[in-house]
# Entry
Amino acid sequence: MTQMILIVEDEPKLAEVLRDYLRHAGFKTFWIVSGSAAVPWVQEHAPALILLDLMLPERNGLEICRDIRTFSSVPIIMITARIEEIDRLQGLESGADDYICKPFSPREMVARVRAVLRRTEVASSFPPVGLTLDQSRYQATLNGYDLDLTAVEFNLLKFLSSKTGQVCTRQQLMDSIYPDERIVADRTIDSHIKKLRKKIALGSSDAEFIHSVYGVGYKFERRDGSVGLSGREVEVP
Ligand code: CA
# Structure
């Protein structure tokens, strides 16, 4: 099936170049000029990926990205005109999967699109391979091993694993386990995560799943322990 890439860009010449290169690379494309039309279109159409310009008339890319994240984890690559913007955007937790700075080569753009699609396709299978979640019994099973979780830990694991590969902020995690908006300290989440990690470790000694993202929150992603800190270059003698 041909994948559809949505281009949200107010500069017609740039949009045309993006469209041509993406089509040549085998993608379908749809081009939207105005910031206000982007979110309703995504709600209707579910594109495979969005190239989102930061500076748009009516609504900026950051607002659009945040809005889309409330209902979709579609991969988003943000296009910005200034390299300094990228640090700021990453700090703002915009929810984008990648950033490209203008001017960029269209070839690089296509390569980034492919890389993000590959990454998110692997990451987004839910529940992730090896994990089953039975909501009626609050029972999570990892590689055939029943995890002995509390209801809060189960909901935390369910939420984190549904966002596999994405960073979840502590606030998002709190909202996921306490929908009644009670005030909970950050360290409450940290302590739930700590317990959850220990229990997961009992069911999977060779891989880690929950990773801290400094200053932001946590990310669920399978990382095999055998890879080790020194990476894949290690050679077995
Ligand atoms: Ca623009």
